[in-house]
Please model this.
Amino acid sequence: MVSIFLILFVAATAYLFSDFIEYKVVAFLLLVTVSLIAMFFDIVPVLLAACLSAIVWNYFFIPPRFTFAIQSTENVILFSMYFVIAMVNAVLTYKIREIEKKANKKTEKENTLKLYDTLLNSLSHELRTPISTIIGATDTLQEEKHKLSEENATELISEISKASLRLNRQVENLLNMSRLEAGVLKPKNDWCDISELVYDVIHQLKDTLQHKPVEVNIKDNIPLFKLDQGLLEQVLHNLLYNAALYITKYAVITVRVTVNKEHHLVIIIEDTGDGFPEDEIEYVFDKFYRLKNSKTGGTGLGLSIVKGFVEAMNGSIRLENGDEYGAIFTITIPAEIAHVNDIKNE
Amino acid sequence: MNNSVEILIIDDEPQIRKLLNITLQSNDYKLKEASTAQDGLVMAASHPPDLILLDLGLPDESGHEVLKKLREWYSKPVIILSVQSREEDIVKALDNGANDYLVKPFRTGELLARIRSLLRSASSDAENPVVTVGEIEIDLSLRTVKKNKEQVKLTVTEYNLLALLVKNEGKVLTHQFLLRSIWGPSYIDQSQYLRVFVAQLRKKIEDDLNKPLHIITESGIGYRFV
Model:
């Protein structure tokens, strides 16, 4: 419809000026219109437009006007040529567009495949490494028992335990991600002692944190918050785990918990590491995103789960680099507050 | 006995290094560890080990690149340990000069066997033209093959194929490498030649064709002589 309308519109406009422009010029105008139509529409309307333009040109413009008859031989040739050129033009433009579409689809498919490949690689690394440790260590414990010193045997068992925990964390992350994707995540709110929670997570991560000191800055009079402790624990766990893994040795991690003016819970986790590349900050919470210069390992799930969980609690998370060094994660969660002093100790 | 044998592990995963360290030390190998490509190359160059266990996913450089750099001067065995299990990765590593490729997770028994096999073939390279593997004896100077002391008649191509596999005992030789070496560069896609000749060789030297003990198929990759 649109294509027919366009042809008629151009023809009508040309008709208005037909005293000033020669009918041969009108042919060019119509040809351009057909080409433009071919760039945007399907093949049937394009061919229709090409035919219609030929008819319109013949009837309204080629002398004698307002008849389909063409008298001079020159005009017969012109008309035939117009018809052929319009058709060829229409078909060719349409074909080029199709080829372009195909090429775009191909690149899109290639990109998806590439993403899938990277994802599969990092996932297989994250899952297979601890599995290797478990299988290898049990093999050695079983088959090389007589050659192992007691100390080495104990160490292998501790490696098995570490690897199992790592595997568990990855599986947990994948399950959490599917819970987020499925949209079935509903926070179960209950009163939570933030201070206890922070120290608990730090304790859980003591092996990973090793030399990296964590300073905790929470005032004694911090109120209780009504929120989903499980979700917040996972959020803190992922952020501290990331910090422990990626910041330079001996950098300091600080956890600050405060209440802002709107009485929302604010948790700030900052470090004295290298911070994030400025141009990548906006992507770090994307699912499966991994920094361009990141070390091997990691699935790119940790931070996206953090964001998903914080948002599930109606909160928000922001990442920025410090003025001098390090990264600053700021989490804000609106939550009901209970001041400890208000609770009577009876 | 292995005391003097030194193995260098280049792997960024502390857990894997620890596991290999304990397992190999318990088998009397001397161990050195590097967690980055850079460290690994420096350590290999400053005191060349007898064998290198190399991971492909290193933080600073791909293991494939490390392997290429190593192979410019290092001729002793390199075994790749990697989570990457695609045939392309395995073939690429072997073509770049890896002697063997184990996909993580691997069994430690298997790793120890491959290490032993490669170390044996590396040390037997020296001068001795007669290779004895079980009941099979191959004399590389006289170009003769005996099974249970009896001469086995081989065609020229069969012999060349066997000799190539034997000279690289323990090492996986890719289809392309074998085809190029025996038949020439224009044959690298003609894997049917290889299938036919390997089958013929097995008929002559293996006891049970369904369970070959010497010419082992590495599915989709190549063959190994053990």
